[in-house]
Every structure is written in C-alpha cells, then in structure tokens.
Amino acid sequence: MPSPSPPQFESSLARLCRARDLIRDCFTEPVTLGDCAAEARFSPWHLLRAFRATFGETPKEFLTRLRLERARHLLTVTDRPVTEVCFDVGFSSLGTFSTLFKQAVGCPPTEYRRRVRPWVTAPGFRPWASIPSCFARRFGGW
Q1: Residues 85-94: contacts with CB within 8 Å, 24+ apart?
Q2: Which of 54, 89, 101, 119 is a plausible cystine mate for 67, CB 3.0–4.6 Å?
Q3: How far apart are CA 137 and CA 124, in angstroms?
Q4: Predicted TM-score of the model (pTM)
C-alpha cells in the first residue's frame, strides 16, 4: 500500500485548489494575489498563469465573479441599500462595484433589483434560475 505523499510533493492541482478555496472562503475580505500564492506555495506570477490555465479565469476574475454572484443574491432577496451590499460583498468602491456589475449583468444594481423584484415571491426563490442569462438578456429586455 503506497504511503501518502509528503506535503512538499503535493500536486500542483491540489495547491491551486487550496488557493481557489482561500478565495471562496474569504471573498468578502481583501484577498491579494500574494495571499493566494502563499497559500498555494507558488510565485504570484506562476499562480496567475497556472490558475488561468486550470480554471479558465484569473484569481481576480474568480474573486470578482463570486462577489457579483453574492451581490445579485442580496439585491434580489433583501432590501439592503446598494452601497451596503457593495461593501458587504467585499468591494471597497461603489463606483467600481457598479461598473463591474453593469458589465457582468447588463444593467446597474438598482435597475437589476427593480427588474427582478416582481419575480421574487419568497426569500431565496428565483424562478428565472433555470433560464440561461444569455437567453434572459436577449429576450427579457436586459
């Protein structure tokens, strides 16, 4: 029976997954490329290249996507102000948040909330979840 590999021989994939898990677990806090590289025991630039090659996006893109997904959820099911949602999901600038949100979703956060609210009948219920976003944007007026 083979013995477990010592930590220094941990696979690159496992190390990349540790960096990804750090981002996923701490996405509402400031997370830097250096933090992720230290977690994976890679240089920052090697982590950047390997992360993109493995997961199809950079650590920053992954972090931004997680934050925006959480913001969409909060805007849908809560009445919290957009500014509060922005800071709660980890953005430090409302302008940056609004710009990235509009690029990703197709409309500003306040308009998104106005559009999705008629669909919300219970907390956490999202009847459009099974509709691909590209279809919703094309045929839903987004």
Answers
A1: 85/109, 88/28, 89/27, 89/28, 90/27, 90/28, 90/29, 90/30, 90/63, 91/67, 92/30
A2: 89
A3: 21
A4: 0.76
